[in-house]
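Structure first, sequence second, as always.
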C-alpha cells in the first residue's frame, strides 16, 4: 500500500493503519490547527457521502436560546450573560472564563457532555461500512483521540495559515497568538493516523480526500 498520496500541492501521509469495524461505520476524528483548512477537508468528506458532525456548530446548538445548556450557564455564571433576544453573550462569557481556570472547568462540565451526546447522535446515523467524521479542532487538547478508529490531522505551512487568517480579517499578531495557544505539531503527529498537508487549492484538497477515501479508508 502506498503511504503517500499527492495531488498538486496537497499531500496525505499514512502514519499508521487501523482495524476496520465490521458492524458499524468507520469513526474518524478530523482535527487541525486554525488556518490549516480543516473545514475544506470536512466539506470534501461531506460531498463524498460521509456523515459529518461539526463540534463547533454543535457547541453553539447546545447553548441556543431555550436549551438546558443555556439555562445551566445562566444559573452558574449569571443571567446578565443572556441578551435581550434570549441568546448567550459569548464575548462576555469568554472574558469570564479566559483567565479563570475554575470558571472554564465549570463551563466545560456543562457543555462537553451535551456536545458529546449530540455528536454521538449524529455520528451513529452513519450506516455500517460508511464514514462517520467528527470535525473537532481541539482533539489533542481534549485528550479524546483514543475513542476513534482513525485520526486525520490537517496541517499547512505556517505562512499559508497566517495568510488565510489575515484574509479572514485577523491581524498577523492575533493569528500568531492563536496558533501558539493550540496544540503543537508534535502533539498532533503523535495522534495522527493520516497527516494531510493542505497547501494547495480547494480543488486539489477535494481531489486528495477523494483518493484518500477510496485508497485507504474504504479499501477492502
Amino acid at each position: 500500500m502506498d503511504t503517500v498520496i499527492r495531488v498538486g500541492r496537497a499531500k496525505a501521509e499514512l502514519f499508521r493503519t487501523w482495524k476496520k469495524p465490521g458492524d458499524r461505520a468507520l469513526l474518524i476524528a478530523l482535527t487541525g490547527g486554525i488556518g490549516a483548512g480543516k473545514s475544506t477537508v470536512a466539506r470534501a468528506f461531506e460531498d463524498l457521502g460521509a456523515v459529518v458532525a461539526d463540534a463547533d456548530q454543535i457547541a453553539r446548538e447546545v447553548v441556543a436560546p431555550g436549551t438546558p445548556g443555556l439555562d445551566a450557564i445562566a444559573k452558574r455564571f449569571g443571567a446578565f450573560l443572556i441578551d435581550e433576544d434570549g441568546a448567550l453573550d459569548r464575548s462576555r462569557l469568554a472574558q469570564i472564563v479566559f483567565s479563570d481556570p475554575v470558571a472554564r472547568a465549570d463551563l466545560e462540565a456543562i457543555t462537553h457532555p451535551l456536545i458529546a451526546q449530540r455528536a454521538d447522535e449524529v455520528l451513529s446515523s452513519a450506516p455500517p461500512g460508511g464514514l462517520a467524521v467528527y470535525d473537532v479542532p481541539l482533539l489533542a487538547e481534549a485528550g479524546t483521540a483514543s475513542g476513534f478508529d482513525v485520526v486525520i490531522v490537517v496541517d499547512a505551512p505556517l505562512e499559508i495559515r497566517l495568510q488565510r487568517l489575515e484574509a479572514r480579517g485577523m491581524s498577523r499578531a492575533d493569528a500568531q497568538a492563536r496558533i501558539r495557544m493550540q496544540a503543537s505539531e508534535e502533539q498532533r503527529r503523535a495522534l495522527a493516523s493520516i497527516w494531510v498537508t493542505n497547501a494547495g487549492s480547494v480543488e486539489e484538497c477535494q481531489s486528495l480526500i477523494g483518493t484518500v477515501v477510496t485508497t485507504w479508508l474504504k479499501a477492502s
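Margin note: The chain has ten helices and seven strands.
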